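Title: Prediction job returns without error message
Component: structure pipeline
Severity: low
Priority: P3
Assignee: unassigned

Description:
Job completed but the reporter wants confirmation the result is attached to the right record. Sequence as submitted:
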Amino acid sequence: MGQYRQLLVLLTDIDPHSAALRRALALAHVSGAAVHIVGLFEPHADHSLRQEQLNEAEMQRQYGRYREQLEALVERHRPSDTCLTFDTVKAEDLREQAADYIRELKPDMVIKDTEKTPALARFFATPLDCALLRACQCLLHFVPRAAASLPKRILVAVDTALHDEPHDQMLFNRALIRAADALALQCDAQLHLLGAYDLAGVFAPEMLVTQTWVEEMRDALQVSFDALADAEGVPHDCRHFKEGGAVQVIREQVAALDIDVVVMGVVQPRGLSKLLGDTTERIVSDPPCGVLSVHPCVIDTWEPPPCN
């Protein structure tokens, strides 16, 4: 039995080479899931829906052409063994309407092509990918253009730092691993576990004292990381505990291990002050590979089988 029942593909452009559509169809083939495609239509920049002088006939022409192109794309990719449906939405507010559609449909996973966004651009406006990360309490899978149909190596990034709510953090880490394991099981992929720690801010007046503190803190974090890996059955040769900032370490390990998908948390559970959102958004905005983001609500709403 497959891990997924319904997959939602979000398309803004009608791209015959969409990696998100290719990934969704491949996952549907191995899982038996249904695939629903929604095309999010926005008029050209010179025909904004917000302009009072909008030429309604021209907007309808654009929308009709968009729907025809999407229908042709769906028919071109329609497999015989998958339930494939599609819909189009006229988007006055692309971010809000996409989030509303996801909340109403409640798919097992949302799959979208990645959009590389420079840091300066993110400062002035929220990209659609980041807006979805913030608004949607679900699994969001962002797929880069050059991605293979199915991933073969999956890296799940967990946080084993000391927190005020260790139980909630433990549950969230386990949810991350199980979401990654569900994808790995479906794709016959290898699962790797990554823990990044950064002790650069640890300081004491005496260098020897600082070194002792760093070693003790690192050992404590290592014990927590190993306990999590043991509980979830992650093999020793697939565990990676690395020093450095989270974004840097993730990018390094993606390259070193030839990772196809990195699984990350969107934010930490309620009661924890530190947010992971910035790390995930920075990765999604300039992805080194595919990204599967997991919202904390999966702890209560979705519990795939544990690792074997």
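Comment from assignee: result matches the submitted record. The chain has ten helices and ten strands.
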